[in-house]
Amino acid sequence: MVEESASVLSVENDIVWVQAIQQSACGSCQAQKGCGHSLLAKVGQKEIKIPVARNGLDVTANDHVIIGVPEQAILKSSLIMYGIPLMLMIFVAMFATLLQASEGVVILLSFSSLLLGFVWVNFHTKSLDFEQWNPQLVRKLEPESINIPMCEVD
Hints:
The protein is α+β, with helices and mostly antiparallel strands. It has three helices and five strands, in the order E-E-H-E-E-H-H-E. A five-stranded antiparallel beta sheet has the order 3-2-1-4-5. A hairpin with a 2-residue loop joins strand 1 and strand 2 (15-21). 8% of the residues are buried.
C-alpha cells in the first residue's frame, strides 16, 4: 500500500475529508537552498483535498492521519489511462505502415488514434467500479510522531 500523511478537515459519517500536501524529495536534500529545482517545487506545491473511507478509525478534525492506496490500484489505473491509448497508437501506426501509407498520414493517424484512445478511456472508466481503488485511512498519527525529521544532518 502506498501511504501519505494528511490532516483531517472534517468527518461526515463514514467519509473523512483529508488534506494532503504534494511534496517533492527536496525537503530532505542538503543542497535545497542553492537549488533551482527546490524553488520550483516549493512554488508548485498543491494542497489536495480528498474524501477517504473512514475504516472504523476514531478521528476528528485537525487530526493527522496516514492514508493509503493499494499498489494494484495505481498499476491498473496507470495501465488503463496510458497503456490503452499508447497501444492503440502503436497498432494504428504499424497497420498504416504495413499499408505503405506516407509518413505524414502515419503520423496523423497515430496522433488521432492516441486522442481517440484517451476519449475512449474517459467514457469507459465512468462505468467501472473504483470502490476498491479509493484511498482509505490506514492509521492515526500520534502527536509526538508528527514532527519527526526524515533524516538527520551531521
